[in-house]
Request: fold
Amino acid sequence: MSTTHGSNGRVAGKVCIVTGAGSGIGEATALRLGEEGGRVTCADLDGERAARTAAAVVAAGGEAIATTTDVADRSSVEAMVADTVTAWGRVDVLVSNAGVNLPGLLHEVSDEVIDRTLDVNVKGQLYGARAVIPHMLAQGGGSIVNVSSVNGIVSEPFLTVYSASKGASVMLTKGIALDYAKQGIRCNVICPGWVDTPINHAHADMMGGLTQVYDTIDSFQPIGRPGEPREIAHVALFLASDEASFMTGSVVPVDGGMTAQ
Reply:
């Protein structure tokens, strides 16, 4: 399997924000957008990781800045967007990828876990969209790509709160799409399956460990392997680009067949 793609300038000149850009799917998406000519704001709660991703985009010949952003904090999100507009004058793409997965049985999870999950996974995407939409309206359009999960469509043991938050992401996407369909703003959502990123490790521990999960992955993910972050990034790039101009409100599973069962 090869996930190497050359640059064709598919988002050339577009100003793109990626949250959770310090690792995993967010990092891969920031790099992919940069490869295709995007100017990328790499936002992450871990500012050092965001800076490393931005440096990697630049090293590969792209343009990037980094911001330390807590998507659960409205003022932090607004500052992220303001920094982007200051740097490049506009916002064309928002990839709302930042998220947390704090698994547990519902009656055992704490208020803090519930609040953090909803604050990051739901409010983070709400705040992000609300902050970029005025800029997109003023410039005549844009693309918002939310990253949910297959657990926004189907659930699994130990993921009740996470699934609730990811289901909210799916419906948020549809609502935004309908509100702004005639104003040039598209909003779509990606629902990744099990991808090889650290966000899944705590869930894996509750399922017998990462080795056990990967040894038995074909029991729930028919393709028989975990996804790679770059495979999700390719889809985010497509949805960000004008190639997806007739897509809005779409729920796009990228899950190795998990939800086909």
